[in-house]
């Protein structure tokens, strides 16, 4: 049941302008990756951290776990680093404070297929 609901949401998300923009930084999955492969590459946080490093190369780099292998704690770690890097970029480079609530990395990390953020 959840898979029947998630598949159209996944397709919609993977064709969104944000994902289309992120893909300009490079391929998300090796070879002919499916939408699911590309989505997993996003929620693992490795690729998004690489994108953030290209946007702000002067930021202090923290160790991102490149081999997540569906480990929730490693995924949470990577996404936490990403959120910190985004906050740092807004505060130090753009001189802006983020007023909106940020995604809950614990929810995304534990169950990236829930659709809850």
Automatic annotation (TrEMBL):
Residue stretches making up the Calponin-homology (CH) domain: 12-117
InterPro entries documented for this protein: CH_dom, CH_dom_sf, HOOK_N
Record-given protein name: Calponin-homology (CH) domain-containing protein
GO molecular function ontology, one term from the record: dynein light intermediate chain binding
Species annotation: Jaculus jaculus (Lesser Egyptian jerboa)
Entry keywords, A to Z: Coiled coil, Cytoplasm
Compartments where found: Cytoplasm
Lineage of producing organism: Eukaryota, Metazoa, Chordata, Craniata, Vertebrata
This protein's record includes keyword NADP: no
SUPFAM superfamilies: Hook domain
PANTHER family per the UniProt record, alphabetical: GIRDIN (PTHR18947:SF30), HOOK PROTEINS (PTHR18947)
Pfam families: HOOK_N
GO cellular component: centrosome; cytoplasm
GO BP: cytoplasmic microtubule organization; cytoskeleton-dependent intracellular transport
Region forming the signal peptide: none
């Amino acid at each position: 049941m959840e898979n029947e609901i998630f598949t159209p949401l996944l397709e919609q998300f993977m064709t969104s302008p944000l994902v289309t923009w992120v893909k300009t930084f490079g391929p998300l999955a090796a070879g002919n990756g499916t939408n699911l492969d590309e989505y997993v590459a996003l929620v693992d946080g490795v690729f998004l951290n690489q994108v953030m490093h290209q946007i702000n190369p002067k930021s202090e780099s923290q160790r991102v776990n490149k081999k997540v292998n569906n480990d929730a704690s490693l995924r949470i770690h990577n996404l936490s680093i990403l959120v910190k890097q985004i906050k740092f970029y807004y505060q130090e480079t753009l001189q802006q404070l983020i007023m909106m609530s940020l995604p809950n990395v614990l929810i995304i990390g534990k169950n990236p297929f829930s659709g809850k953020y």
